[in-house]
Structures are given as structure tokens and as C-alpha cells.
Design goal:
The complex is a heterodimer of chains A (401) and B (82). By secondary structure, chain A is mainly alpha-helical. Chain A has 13 helices and seven strands. Chain A folds into two domains: 311 residues, Orthogonal Bundle (Ammonium transporter fold), CATH 1.10.3430.10; 49 residues, no CATH class. Chain B is mostly helical. The chains are: A mainly alpha (401), B mainly alpha (82).
Chain lengths: 401, 82
């Protein structure tokens, strides 16, 4: 008799099926176990890989919050995101025994949603409470562009991320040396190192192309488009044909630029590096695409077929799992006045207050000036500070000129 | 003096306590708990210390007068000479 959907009733290898299981820090599978040299080392490497991904989630959030968040607030948010939210979502949908995998065939092999999408949704919740940087929106609510002080280094940083992505992809695989082809994805389904290496490379190419067109050649968004492209195809990187990956990542690069503009200009959420669009949106988009283009592909040790409904179930589970903790914790920190630096410190720049030194001594500190209607140039600091206080940091306040 | 340390007698006990060689030893649990306490205390200390630094810097900046409102700002400003 054909088993119905969802396909429940399979035994889970996890200690606590569907909850934390083997991915929990206190699990016997995670800590060093020197009784057996081989398994002990494998367990420790497994733990460190998950630790790396927990740092990744926090690093995704970091760029969005810069220039106004307190370092301690970021640290607390990072602990919750990396140690609670990420561990929970990995146990649910990035584990051979997670309930989304064993029941719905949820497929997110190289972590589009479970790392990037979840970090982006958490970040969005934080940004709503954090508010925009002072001066990001003018008195009519129009977005102003904050240029990087060194575009070369900004782009070089993005390229370093690309290099790291190859390691990230490889860290998402298991090695089973005794069985051909030797590599398994996180759901213990066979894959190859060549497949993911090809998809990541082609994913960058497609993302660059899409990002370049959508941003009309903006260098930051072109390279961010490459990142968006890879994230859009990561969920199915173990099964996609590279040609398909190129087409899908092209669309991901396009959409990331458009979504980034919508978030900045229409929603008036100040995401300093476009993390919500590139990681958050494309993370969800990547899982969505697997439901369409890899539907029917068997996932996990129970061979549950990928389905659009199963992918949607994962998206619906992870959106509140990520967004609500970010929103609630940042709301509490905001109420305690521990989320954001004082406005005066923000205008001066955080380095002097936080670290006691100017990190860019080669640049002369020139105060920003504002041109008044009668043509006089005045120091902008006082005006920006008063405007910020008058609107309570809300970017949506419109003042009729 | 140094030779008086009973290493041969205590070595296994000391090793059991301080290293993770034998899993689930008493020392492992004690050090894990101490590490967790230190981590939480560090977080609280970080929040407190940063709060002090930021408030001190903000007060110093206000005292310089750099953020005082200029005389004729914004679209509502009128020229006193007219």
C-alpha cells in the first residue's frame, strides 16, 4: 500500500528525534571521544564544522548592523543565533534524523536556508528594532547612499568570502571512503565533490551576471550578486546540473539586487550590506527552487522524495524560528538601552569609543556639512542629532517641506 | 624540592582530572561548569564595561559643544537680517 504524505513513522537515529539529537552540543556525538581515535576525531571535526557554521550565521548578521549596534549587543544576539537558532534549525532540517527530513523530505543540502536564510530572517528582526544609521534617510524619508571608504578592500573582502565558500561547501559533506562515490551530503545521500565544486563555480558566474545587469554595473552589488547566486543554488547543489545552476543563480543575483533596493527604499530598513536580501531572501529562494527543480529526488536515509510542499513546510517552520528570537531579543535590549550606541558616539564613529583609537589615521577627519536654504554651510552633526532625536530613530517619519 | 612531588603516585589521578582522556571524569564536569560560568560572567561584564565606555565618550563629546544646534539650520530657518 502506498504510504501517505507526509511519510511519517520512520525511526530517527537522533537521541531526541526532531529536536536537537546529534547536533546538540551535549550530544555524545559532538564532544571529543578519545576512547576511539577514529570516531573521536570525526566527532570533534563534526562539532567544529557546526561551530564554523554558527559563526557564519553571526557573521552574516554583523554587516547589516554595523556602525550603530553595540558590540556587546551583537555578541548576545550572535550567541542566540549561533548557539540556539542555528542548532535548532539544523536539527530540524539539516540532519538525517530531523523531522523535516524524515517526514517531508526537506532538502537543503549545502545550507541555503538553514544557514543563510535563517541568519537573514533573524537579522531582519533585529534591524526593525535597531533602526537606521543616523543620516541614512533624509527628512522626506529618502534613502541616502553611504559609500565605503575603500571600495577595493570591500570587494576584496567579498572575494575572500568566495574562496571560503569552497571550504564551506566541502565542510557540508561527509566522507564514506568504503562506498562509491565516497561523498555523502548531510542527509547521508550520495553526492560527489565535483558536483558541488561545479555548482558553486557556475553559481558565482550566474550570480555575477544577474547582479551586474540588475545593478547596472555597480561593483558592490555585482559581487554580492555572485554570493546571492551561490546561495540560491546551494540547497540543490548536490543534484543540480551545472547549466541549471547557471540559470537559477542568474535569477538569484537579479532578485537579490531588486529585493535589496526594496528593503532599503520602500521598507526603509537600513541593512548596511544587503545581508537580508543576499542571504535571507536568497536562502529561502534556494529552498523554494529545489521544490520545483529537484522534485521527486530522494532525500536522506529514508529516501523521502523532495516535494514543493515539503520545501514550503521547511520555509514556514524556519521563518518564525529565526525571525521571532531576533526581534524579541533585540526588543528587550532596546528597552534596556543596550542595543544601540549613543547618538553622539555614532556620529563620531564607533572606533574611538569602543577601541580607543582611530583605525584610519591616514584619512583626515572632515566633518560633514549641510547646505542651508540661504546658502550657508553648517556642520551637520547638530542637525542630524536633533533630527534623530525628533523622529526617535524611526525612518518612516515624513516631514512636509 | 621538585623531586618531592609524588608524580608516579598521582599521575593518573591528575591526568584524569585535567585532561579529556578518560571521558566523563569528575574533572571534566567541574571544568565544564566553571567554563560556562566564566562565559556568562564575561558576557555580563562585556555589556557593563561597554556601557561605561560609551556613556563616558558620549558625555565627553557633548561637553565639547560639537553637537550643539547651529544658529540657522534646516528649511524652517529664517535669516535675522531680513
Amino acid at each position: 500500500m502506498e504510504e501517505g504524505w507526509p511519510k511519517s513513522g520512520h525511526d530517527s537515529p537522533d537521541a531526541f528525534p526532531g529536536f536537537c539529537g546529534l547536533t546538540a552540543p551535549w550530544s555524545s556525538g559532538m564532544g571529543p571521544n578519545m576512547e576511539s581515535n577514529l570516531t573521536g576525531h570525526l566527532s570533534l571535526v563534526f562539532f567544529l564544522a557546526f561551530l564554523l557554521f554558527s559563526w557564519t550565521t553571526a557573521s552574516i548578521m554583523s554587516g547589516a548592523l554595523i556602525e550603530r549596534v553595540r558590540l556587546s549587543a551583537f555578541l548576545l544576539l550572535g550567541v542566540v543565533l549561533g548557539s540556539v537558532v542555528w542548532i535548532m534549525d539544523a536539527a530540524w532540517g539539516w540532519s538525517s534524523g530531523g523531522w523535516l527530513t524524515t517526514r517531508y523530505g526537506f532538502h537543503d543540502s549545502i545550507a541555503s536556508l538553514v544557514v543563510h536564510g535563517v541568519a537573514g530572517a533573524f537579522t531582519l528582526g533585529v534591524l526593525l528594532n535597531l533602526g537606521p544609521r543616523i543620516g541614512k534617510y533624509d527628512v522626506l524619508g529618502r534613502a541616502r547612499s553611504f559609500r565605503p571608504h575603500n571600495t577595493h578592500l570591500t570587494l576584496m573582502g567579498l572575494m575572500l568570502i568566495f574562496t571560503g565558500f569552497y571550504g564551506f561547501y566541502a565542510a557540508c559533506l561527509f566522507i564514506q571512503s568504503t562506498v562509491f562515490p565516497g561523498w555523502l551530503n548531510i542527509y547521508l545521500s550520495p553526492t560527489t565533490l565535483g558536483a558541488i565544486a561545479m555548482v558553486i563555480t557556475i553559481g558565482f558566474a550566474g550570480g555575477f551576471t544577474g547582479g551586474w545587469f540588475a545593478s547596472k554595473g555597480d561593483p558592490f552589488w555585482t559581487l554580492s550578486g555572485g554570493l546571492a547566486g551561490v546561495i540560491s543554488v546551494s540547497a540543490g547543489a548536490d543534484v543540480y546540473h551545472p547549466s541549471l545552476a547557471y540559470l537559477l543563480s542568474f535569477s538569484g543575483g537579479l532578485l537579490a539586487v531588486w529585493v535589496g533596493g526594496y528593503i532599503e527604499k520602500s521598507l526603509r530598513v537600513d541593512d548596511a550590506v544587503g545581508a537580508v536580501a543576499v542571504h535571507g531572501f536568497c536562502g529561502f529562494y534556494g529552498v523554494f527552487l529545489v521544490g520545483i527543480f529537484a522534485g521527486g529526488y530522494p532525500t536522506g536515509i529514508n529516501n523521502i522524495p523532495v516535494s514543493f510542499g515539503g520545501q514550503l513546510m521547511g520555509m514556514l517552520a524556519f521563518l518564525p524560528l529565526a525571525f521571532l528570537p531576533g526581534y524579541i531579543l533585540s526588543w528587550i535590549l532596546k528597552k534596556l538601552n543596550l542595543l544601540r550606541v549613543p547618538a553622539e558616539v555614532e556620529l563620531e564613529g564607533l572606533d574611538l569609543a569602543e577601541f580607543g583609537q582611530d583605525f584610519y589615521p591616514e584619512f583626515e577627519r572632515v566633518p560633514e556639512v549641510i547646505l542651508t536654504p540661504d546658502g550657508e554651510e553648517v556642520d551637520s552633526a547638530g542637525i542630524l542629532l536633533e533630527a534623530y532625536a525628533a523622529t526617535n530613530g524611526k525612518p518612516t517619519t515624513r516631514v512636509e517641506a | 624540592m621538585w623531586n618531592s612531588f609524588p608524580y608516579d603516585e598521582w599521575s593518573e589521578t591528575v591526568t584524569d582530572f585535567w585532561t579529556f582522556g578518560p571521558a566523563n571524569s569528575t574533572g571534566t564536569y567541574i571544568m565544564t561548569v566553571l567554563g560556562c560560568i566564566l562565559m556568562v560572567a564575561s558576557l555580563i561584564g562585556w555589556v557593563w564595561m561597554e556601557k561605561q565606555k560609551l556613556e563616558r565618550q558620549a558625555a565627553a563629546l557633548r561637553a565639547t559643544g560639537a553637537f550643539d544646534q547651529p544658529a540657522a539650520p534646516g528649511p524652517q530657518a529664517t535669516s535675522s537680517g531680513d
